[in-house]
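Render this sequence as a predicted structure.
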Amino acid sequence: SAVVSVSQVPVAEGKSVQQTVEILTRKLEVLGAEKQGTFCVDCETYHTAASTIGSQGQTGKLMYVMHNSEYPLSCFALFENGPCLIADANFDILMVKLKGFFQNAKANKIESRGTRYQYCDFLVKVGTVTMGPSARGISVEVEYCPCVIANDCWNLLMEFMQSFMGNHTPGIPSVFGTKHDSVYSPADTMVQYMELFNKIRKQQQVPVAGMR
């Protein structure tokens, strides 16, 4: 799996989420990026069912079950600060069977979908992040296809992101910190999406003036 950066782009002053997405994709098209289909990443939150916590005073754990259209045969299960398991698509059926242990917090389902763009060796996905019926934010995923070692290509990635993200170019993702010179994997991308989705969820809990 090639090295990927996933980040959030704030909504432009006086614009809607959709208009900001259009501004970003127009910049990509001006650079010469070509549309290549669509993508979707989704995330459902499960919390440990009350019955399993018992009386030991443990707090319930959250587990995120995620899908990414780039990996249609896989399902990713991530624990908040813990491992990311990669399972096959039947995992969803298993989660239904485990409902005595894990309960789906349906109101928390969040997803990002949008258009994929190819530009030279980069694959860019600009997504609208939605929770329920409303758009909550914007995600930008940039993949540098030839490289599998994060540290080898971060500068290249950053330089390219600056060309269309300007001062919203992200810093180095926290998952890179633990990778150093090891090979980047799809799980690392999913951890970045989980962090982004959680950030957007938290922003929703704080009413901000002028948000639409």
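Summary. The chain has a mean pLDDT of 88. Strands lie at 3-8, 34-48, 62-68, 74-79, 84-88, 102-104, 110-119, 122-131, 134-144.
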